[in-house]
Amino acid sequence: MFDLLAMTLSGDVVTEPAGQTEMLDWQWRGEGILELSPRQPCEAAVVISAGIHGNETAPIELLNQLVSELLSGERQLRVRLLVLLGNPPSMCINKRFVEADMNRMFGGRHARYTPNDESRRAQELEQVMALFYRSATAAGTTQRYHYDLHTAIRGSKHVRFGLLPLQARPKSEAMLAWLNAAGLDALVHHRSPGGTFTHFSSDVFQADSCTLELGKALPFGSNDHAQFTGIRRALETLVSDEPLPVREAPAPLVHYCVVQDVIRSREDFELFVPADALNFTAFSKGFVIAQETGKTYKVEADEEVVLFPNPNVALGLRAGLMLVKM
Ligand SMILES: O=C(O)CCC(=O)N[C@@H](CCC(=O)O)C(=O)O
Ligand SMILES: [Zn+2]
């Protein structure tokens, strides 16, 4: 069985960088980067990435399984597909990153860093994505999708959720229907641009892009994949161009928009969100979320919920998001 994850983690030089099965052609485009093309014409160019943060293993395992099914012929490929395992060195050490958070570097922001493995990788992923979408368009595809799979550091009141990058054009109905069918519990709408991979793909290539969060980060082999059946099923229908699955979720999808990006810009930054607070915990108007010299972040709406609170980020990066229900 073809094991993309094992090949990527081994770091072995790939001696046969291209091949074919009865139904598709594949090309190894670089470490952890695999392109799959069906023989018949198709409409969609799909990028699925995971492991942009190396310790977020559930989606890496899920994506690896999907690739194996496509290559074994168990599952039909009816889109052009680029699969990316984002940060192999950090996957090897089960850490979010080695030197710096790669999901803040896209859209050329990598050039602002003293060159390191992550800044070089972010640039490589941008180039590979550009080449992929361009060649897929030349081959006749008309739709572009990008799903970037993550898991959260903390537990969350909504276990499965998505983050939609800011974009001027309306969100695609097809993507919103897919996200709903995938059984997500919540969708978060960004209101400012960022250095995330999905902001880059949406902004530069007009892809229908979404960051998907699948539970809490755990080591390889410790994930409860039963929690992600809906997302797995939705990804299967996406790559096989099948009808959407029926949504299975305890409650309707809740939409939030970001009202505050909490940025740590000074050494004396302090975050007042309790260490054990789950993502989507609500705080009332007036609560001081964070403080640093010259800046206090307070809850301004009657109620705001917190997402990704993390005081340990590098200076200049986001230490949390505050959201309100839409
Ligand atoms: O749990 C956390 O603090 C972070 C989980 C994670 O990596 N989330 C992504 C979200 C990207 C987006 O906003 O689209 C990230 O922070 O990079
Ligand atoms: Zn992540």
Automatic annotation (TrEMBL):
Family classification: Belongs to the AspA/AstE family. Succinylglutamate desuccinylase subfamily.
UniProt remark on cofactor binding: Binds 1 zinc ion per subunit.
Alphabetical list of Pfam families matching this protein: AstE_AspA_cat, AstE_AspA_hybrid
Alphabetical list of PANTHER family matching this protein: ASPARTOACYLASE, SUCCINYLGLUTAMATE DESUCCINYLASE
General function of this protein: Transforms N(2)-succinylglutamate into succinate and glutamate.
Enzymatic reactions: N-succinyl-L-glutamate + H2O = L-glutamate + succinate
Presence of the UniProt keyword Zinc-finger in the record: no
Chain ranges of the Succinylglutamate desuccinylase/Aspartoacylase catalytic domain: 45-234
Organism ancestry: Bacteria, Pseudomonadati, Pseudomonadota, Gammaproteobacteria, Enterobacterales
Pathway involvement of the protein, from the record: Amino-acid degradation; L-arginine degradation via AST pathway; L-glutamate and succinate from L-arginine: step 5/5
EC code(s) of this entry: 3.5.1.96
Residues bound to Zn(2+): H53, E56, H150
Cofactor: Zn(2+)
Descriptive protein name: Succinylglutamate desuccinylase
GO molecular function: succinylglutamate desuccinylase activity
UniProt-annotated catalytic positions: E213
Alphabetically ordered keywords of this record: Arginine metabolism, Hydrolase, Metal-binding, Zinc
Broad enzyme group: hydrolase
The species this protein was found in: Rahnella ecdela
Residue ranges constituting the AstE/AspA barrel-sandwich hybrid domain according to the UniProt record: 252-325
